[in-house]
Specification:
alpha/beta; 2 domains; 10 helices; FAD/NAD(P)-binding domain; about 375 residues; five-stranded parallel beta sheet
Length: about 375
Amino acid sequence: MQGEPSLRLSPTRRSCSKLDAMNQGVMKPDGGPVQTDVAIIGAGPVGLFAVFACGMVGLRTAVIDALPGLGGQCTALYPEKPIYDIPAHPEITGRGLIGALERQIAPFAPLIRLGERVVALRGAAGDFHLTTDKGAEIAARGVILAAGAGAFGPNRPPLPGLAAFEATGSVLYLVDDPERLRGKRVVIAGGGDSALDWALALRGVAASLTLVHRRGRFRALPAQEEELRRAAARGEIALRVPFQLAALHGASGRLEAVEIASLEGGREFLPADHLLAFFGLAADLGPIAQWGIEREGAQIPVDPARMETSRPGVFAIGDVALYPGKLKLILQGFSEAAVAARALYALIHPDRPLHQAYSTTTGIPPLPPTPFRSETEATA
């Protein structure tokens, strides 16, 4: 592995941050790959619950996600919107759900690598090797694909010099901690739920708040748009519609102003410290499509009794999994994670029967003292 785990943590994530590197991923003396039992690709709610399900049967985990924060679509698309179909929660926001899952998995100290995409999967069941686009190497005995409809990445506005402003955090596609925007001049671009959610949520936090959208109508719930219009009438939010982004201005990647253009060609300069760009997420199976796994479009058929794909040792759960009667619901993904974890236990420990037990009896089991060593490492 090269460098430190790519962690960008909100306050609720700090419970995992001090544990992951020292307790979960153990580097070989020669600087080789981190070793773990199960590599989980995808850090959405189903991927995070898979950490818990694996931990409950004594399996260590590493989680890799292309997005810079935990939570997948829950935090990227609807962090403040209520979810009504999570058992035992009559109503919970996407952010609240992810925060609860982070606390639930903290005892199992997963290694978490964010802002990285797995680009290669080599080996076979019991001895897989994964490589990310940042050069990290992870050795795992089994793999769980929990990547939704694929690896998600933000749709980026086609603006000159964008990368420099992204590198400093002046341009953001996710908000992991609203407090970092306190007292800042914020411009939000977009017309969907995420743009309106954050425009309304940052009232009283940002020093100034401007929402830019290229159309006069928004793609959000009528009640949400009505609240936005009321906030604009009170002077809490400045609306610039119909306008679109034209350019970013600043020095050394530090944003000073956002230039916008009307449909008639008029220009305005909006003083800004941050641009929040909410143009949706692009989903793509990406390299997963090249891993010799049977697919049906953007989904992966599995055996529902094990959640195993056509490639032995590779399992799929959540929206990416396909089988008769499949429901694309978070709660069904949680069940699939438990099924996959038990199948992986049998794969990794074929000589140790797993007896049915309830958490009320077992409590939270301790992690094994060390990760596994592959046969090739044992003989090296």
